[in-house]
Write a structure and sequence with these properties.
With about 575 residues, the chain is mainly α. It contains 21 helices and 2 strands. It is globular and about 65 Å long.
Amino acid sequence: MSITATEPKSSGSGNLSSGFQQKLGLFDSTMLVVGTMIGSGIFVTSVGISRDVGAAGWLLAVWALAGVMTIIGALSYGELAAMMPHAGGQYVYLREAYSPLWGFLYGWTCFLVIQTGSIAAVAVVFAKYLGVFISEAGTENKLLARPIVLDWKLQLPGMDEPFWKMETFNVSAGQIVAVFVLMSLTLLNCRGIQEGKIVQNVFTVAKTLALILLIVIGLFVVASPTAWQMNFAEPWAGIEKTDQFDAVKGLGIASNSTALIALMVMGGAMVGALFSADAWNNITFTAGEMRNPRRTIPLALGIGTGSVILLYMLANLAYVSSLPIHAAPEVESKLTALEKRIEELQKAGNVTEANAVTEERLAFLSKTSTFDLGIDRARDERVGTAVMELWSPGLGAKLMALAIMVSTFGCVNGMILMGARLYYVMAKDNLFFQSVGTLNSRAVPAVGLILQGLWSVLLVFSGTYDDLLDFVIFAVLVFYVLTVAGLFVLRRTRPDAERPYKAFGYPVLPALYVLLCAVIMVNLLIVKPKYTWPGLIIVLTGVPVYFIWRATQGTGVRSQGSGASN
């Protein structure tokens, strides 16, 4: 493998991102969309959502609305991709609609947390499920005899609790496995786009078939009339009994309106569904390597997101068809009492006794039937595994673990492949390390791939990637809103630009997307401030970095639309 910083000749396809090899067709591009959207979220996220909303109707409504928003957003991006079929995708759209600063802030946040943090987190999930088969390789196998005490904390003014903390440091075998996976895939992608797309296609097809198998088993093999009756006798009742409902009501903003509180709870719960379906936008980074990107990207976005959302809705129907939303009353009562006792002991500093009660809780969970635990008390929050266990208590869990390993492996590969293209274009604009803006002899941005891999490794060992991803949820929504709003800006500022595809339902649907995202963001600022303000701070750290980079690297930032520097 060579990572010599050379610029191969353009293939002559007319694509404005010269130097890349145009080897991605419609099938490859669709597999990239599907492969990065389907990770591990669909197999676990419904547990947390069901706890927040407390009823099957609300659970399905959360996924349906998130699905509609995802598809509208993807179709809106299609116009931008067809108008500007250049490597870097969303970075380019923000740069051209607003200014290079906004493009840089997006790229900065992607490199710092969004892309690399996702790579780290999903690689660790792969290792966690590998532990089902090889316990020595799992995340529970700690390699240091004693953890290193750090007690690092970051706290914002006005917040009672620190928004981030790292009390101890240890290394697990699972982290070593995660590093091996992400570095192996990084080096594989350094060998060329052909190698990366083959891995992506194979694993995406495999994971899609695994998800379809789960759906078929849930809907037709283990479907329970009892569960269906329990879930849909009153599909909208129960949200007012959830802890999240009480928490929102306690804010005093809508204390007299049950309907408004319920909608605010739903808005908060949508975070999990939206980001289980996230990363579809990454396909825009690879426009420079597509055949006919003006046609391919809009089609891949539409087909890919539409297919995944359909599968996600069917998967949730499979969950509520086979399992009750809530655990059996006696099970819930017992678990609530044990958890309250654990919390009291931990506050009192009785660590030994708290650990003993924790073991009692785990023992109780292990001997309770999967059906009686329901969705909101599924073991380890693995609702997909719970459905498979109904089919085969012994084999189901292992098959589901294998399916998630396949899913996460393909997801990591897709994110690695696409992310480096973003940093390549930033470097071409003198807004990132110059070496990242080069292609190796195999026409891929190998330096960017390796730098992305090294930072992801650091995040794996930091163990803080999950926290960091929680913090940028709000920031990611901000960039989605800005990008779709860029449609309106560019329709006004560049009315004569070539648009072989125009956003479906413009201006109504893109405006609806912006409105819904804005409402969710305002809601998150209110109901989940711990996960919003820190994200904005992470983004804003890029502002001084941008001006420092401009001052030290030069001011010539390209504009694909006008050819002038900004």
